[in-house]
Amino acid sequence: MSTTVVEGASAGLLAALRANIGWVIGVGWLVLIAGILSVLAPLESAIAITITVGVLLIIRGVSELTLAFRAGAMSHGVLVGLTGVIAALIGVLLVAQPLRGVVAITLIVAAYFVAAGIVAIVFAFRLRPHSGWGWMLANGVITLVLGALIWQQWPLSGTWAIGVLFGAQLICSGIALITIGSALKHGLKVAAAR
Q1: How far is CA 178 from CA 24, 54, 152, in A?
Q2: Less CB within 10 Å around the terminal CB: N or C of the chain?
Q3: Mean pLDDT on 66-84
Q4: How does pLDDT run across 22-42, given as a tens digit for each residue?
Q5: Mean of all residue pLDDT scores within the chain
């Protein structure tokens, strides 16, 4: 990828962030507060995450089953119908047995943290050398480490780790957004004063 493309993408990203500074800072505060609540009540957070995933899988399953039946002959929609049944059944199990689901979903959360950490690190380097990029880099590194910790302590970590680690990741993301938004806001004030 050429530096011109990267610089263009970075300029576009910064322009979009500058145009939405209030949202960046506001979302940062909401994410920070959600992270604090998750750390303070880790088991409840883990159960809430599990039930939410279960409900989403039920919705997906019902949607896919509807699509399979609307596709006409079941022979055309058999695979869609089969995946719909599986999704709905897993969703029902997660909603009905959230504590057991927490242990199972721990591995999914570990994979999410690894992926989110990598994305945050890449995003940080795209923002570099602008103010606040270091916070985004720290967020990415911490998120990546948290994913590794979840994996390493599985299955024992399932009952507490999801809520605590997810909360910590939200806190880091919130701080990163607040810092980036505040730096952009300060930069606009300085530019306007000139």
Answers
A1: 7, 31, 31
A2: C
A3: 70
A4: 888 899 999 999 999 999 998
A5: 82
Q: Is residue 89 part of a domain?
A: no
* Residue 115 belongs to a domain: yes
Q: Report if residue 83 sits inside a domain.
A: no
- Which whole number is the average pLDDT over 139-165? 82
Q: What is the 3-state secondary structure (H, E, C) of the chain?
A: CCHHHHHHHHHHHHHHHHHCHHHHHHHHHHHHHHHHHHHHCHHHHHHHHHHHHHHHHHHHHHHHHHHHHHCCCHHHHHHHHHHHHHHHHHHHHHHHCHHHHHHHHHHHHHHHHHHHHHHHHHHHHHHCCCCCHHHHHHHHHHHHHHHHHHHHHCCHHHHCHHHHHHHHHHHHHHHHHHHHHHHHHHHHHHHHHC
Contact predicate 162/102, CB 8 Å: yes
What local confidence, expressed as pLDDT, does residue 189 receive? Answer: 67
Domain containing residue 178: 3-42+100-193
Report the number of distinct structural domains present in the chain: 1
